[in-house]
Amino acid sequence: MKKFSKYILKYWFAYLLAILCIVIAVSLDMLSPLVTKRIFDNVIIGGDMDLLPKLLIMIFIIGIGRCIFQYLKEFIFDLVSSRISLNIRKDLFIHIQSLSLSFFDKNNTGELMSRVKDDVDKIWNALGFVSMLIIEVIIHTSLVLFCMYTLSPGLAVFPTIILPLMAGLALLMEKKLGKIYEAISEENAQLNTVAQENLSGVRTVKAFAREKHEIKKFLSHNKRYYELNMKQSRVFIKYYPYFQFVTKLLPLAMIILGGYQVIQGTITLGTLAAFVEYSMNIVWPMEMLGWLSNEFASAIASTKRIRKIYAEVPLITELEQPIVFDEVKGSVQFHNVSFALGDKNILTDISFDLAAGKTIGIMGATGTGKSSIINLLQRFYDTTEGDVKLDGVNIKDLTLRQLRKSISLVMQDVFLFSDTISENVKMGKKYLINQDEIVNAASDAQAKDFIERMEDQYETVVGERGVGLSGGQKQRISIARALAKKTPILVLDDSTSALDMETEHMIQKALTQLDSTKIIIAHRISAVRNADEIIILEEGKIVERGTHETLLQTKGYYYKTYMAQYGDLMNTTEDLTPVFNEKEVAVCQ
After folding, report:
1. Which CATH number fits domain 330-405+521-546: 3.65.10.10, 3.40.630.10, 3.30.40.10, 3.40.50.300?
2. What is the pLDDT of residues 298-334, one digit of tens each?
3. How far is CA 253 from CA 224, 249, 522, in A?
4. pTM score > 0.85 for this model?
5. Residue 350: what are its φ and ψ, rounded to 5°?
6. Which of 3, 210, 241, 374 maximizes the CB count within 10 A of its CB?
């Protein structure tokens, strides 16, 4: 990752200009007490009334100058910090996108959202308004002390002693607040996660009448978040009164000590007036110390959490000089592939050779590793043993971009973005797919009719994750998205489970017209019966393989599934030929 200092150094000139504006603004601020001194000494006491208009004009010019340079320094800091936060958020999001699926398996969405939004905002705040004030406090305090020592070294000793005491108190408060801020941020991430999950799954919550339970869970996190914020407040209010006490004590002490020196004739009344004004000018930096240390501690905690994400590296990487095909034909080979996650074996010794343009069907009970084959093909994970090849080349030697762009995937868990149907369909090749291709893909996916019955048709905006559409409608739009992409390999992962038999048959008929290599994962016999080869998985191993007819003859898992789905129909149907061929009837009888 980039060090945060590199983001700042990129805009070093702008920061330098802003600091120069601070110096000028503070210097102008330091002139005001000197003008006040001359008004007391030369005008009020000395009686030089001709000097008064000039001094008043000088006060006015100082005020105008301060306004201009104060505006410039705030504008520059805001502009630069906004750009830096933009780059930090962009780089962080790109880094998160580059991480492997294993990272997302162990990190929830709410926590990542909190890092990308809340933590970057705190860094933004620290690099902008907070850092500006810290620099201004340092410059302001330094110049005030210089002016105080110039006017009266004796009087300047008292505020010089007070300032480091206040600084030490501020550091102590920051140390105590640092741990609390980290806990607040973690709880904020948990709160975001609970809220995000419940809002996304609101239909499930309502369907199971779980509103009270989910509200209780949310309130428990909300209460914890409240308690941590109150803990922060208790630390703050424990120390902040000390700052306020000193800011009120200091000007009073200056008046008493300075007044005594005026009576003794050591300093003039104008010097005392200027000194009191300086002592009041040094008050606000002391008041700001607590708040600034508070905000800075929060930003440091956010930086540590972001660094933890940057410490994560993608497990799926490319070669420095990967192979790039001129054209992907689409043959797929699995050679003795085994796959494990942690201590759990998911696939063991999987081998098959799928020629370009051919179809393989994959069946098995839930949890037997069917979807894991697709995850390995797309390199969401790498094999533990064995090789996966595309057109005879190990997929680890290819670019991830070309590999994944060569595969159209209809996932078991359909995900539609909160956008128009048109944008969802052309997602695979957003700028290459025209309207005619969208319509053709929707037609092949049997989605054209219900889409065109909608008021806005293809420009209809679907809700989050396709809310408002039925399960079958979402599946058909997902299939249309895969078909519109027109890739050498088409993968259907239980993609017709929510469709009726007639609609599924029409989609299967359209799929037979494609030249793509097809991998079909299904629980329905109807989805895989026409495949060139069908493999049956059990506990991550291939236990049966063959064509539809040969698997029926083995009378294993495939045969039992076939009879469970069609046995009653065969026993009650007089004319079986529209549904079953003669070989099937003979085998099953």
Report:
1. 3.40.50.300
2. 788 788 888 888 877 878 788 888 888 888 888 888 8
3. 44, 6, 85
4. no
5. -90, 125
6. 374
